Amino acid sequence: MNKRISIILPVNNVEESDLSIPISSINNQIGIDFHDVELLLIDNGPYKLEHPEFFDLFRNVDLRYLITDQVMESNSAIQFGIDAAQGDYVTILEPNNQLHQAPTLQGYFTMSDAHPDADSINGIVTTQYFDKQRVAHYQVGRMVQSIAGRWIKRSFLQDNQIRFKDDFGPYAEEYVSRLVNKLSNDAVDLDDYGVMKFMSRALPNNNALQAPINVTWMKMMSLYFQQLQNADQVAYMNEFAKFTIRFYTQLKSVPVADRSSLQSIMKTIVGTNALAWAPTLAYVKQVRAKDQSPAAPWNAEAQQFDNYLNGLSQHLNAYGLQMNINQERS
């Protein structure tokens, strides 16, 4: 029997007791038909759960306990679950997450009924974090570069070949989120709380922190542009132009010793996306004419920023790509 939602819960080196909160938050939902819901518990760690039969206590949940053939990284375990899912939509719940309240799923079902063509339904996420004095704080909002609190149509992911990739490490979630953001024909925002993310539990949370730009992030962005170019040329051009500006500003947060390798990768990415370079320069020209804020790189350090753009243009010229640029300008 097909389900309306498949909730994927990947677990790695946790015990049964660690999963009681996320599973009970599903089991205790109200106002829904539990035949529409399945929970896929993906056991992907080196140590299997010893007593998965304990989960039989959660009688409302149609729980499928799946053990991967070999130890997997978290991203592969998520994709394993998506591939095995039977729901029209899929969503991810981590061991240190829980559905926000008892009517949470009811709200999503109501929204999906009202918008049957929606590729994604996006709820509000509450995230817990701690300051240096170990005081807990809570941040509430939508997470545009996260899949937390999102229902994503499984057929949409398949049709657009959007998959979680281990090569991208902590940026796999950002990769998927970026493509969902740009390629969704109908994305609906649910004005209700979907998921609570707790940072206080001593459980794996690979996506909790994201480093400044690095080689892995650049590799992720390169494939993101490739996917986006094949699907939406306008979005691709705009995203590449924004990326070019962001790289310049974010490079300053990288240790000086590591900048050279990233600059080299940037030149390769610009070469791969040579046809987007003239539109990028045009975009920068438009933005710098409108944005007069002192902090903008074209105002704060105009000469350095121009040298940065000119250096990338010269790199393209050196490889005989000036013809493509000129064609784009004509």
UniProtKB/TrEMBL annotation:
Extent of the signal sequence: none
InterPro entries named among the record's database cross-references: Glyco_trans_2-like, Nucleotide-diphossugar_trans
Domain Glycosyltransferase 2-like: 6-139
Name this polypeptide is given: Glycosyltransferase 2-like domain-containing protein
Provenance organism: Lacticaseibacillus pantheris DSM 15945 = JCM 12539 = NBRC 106106
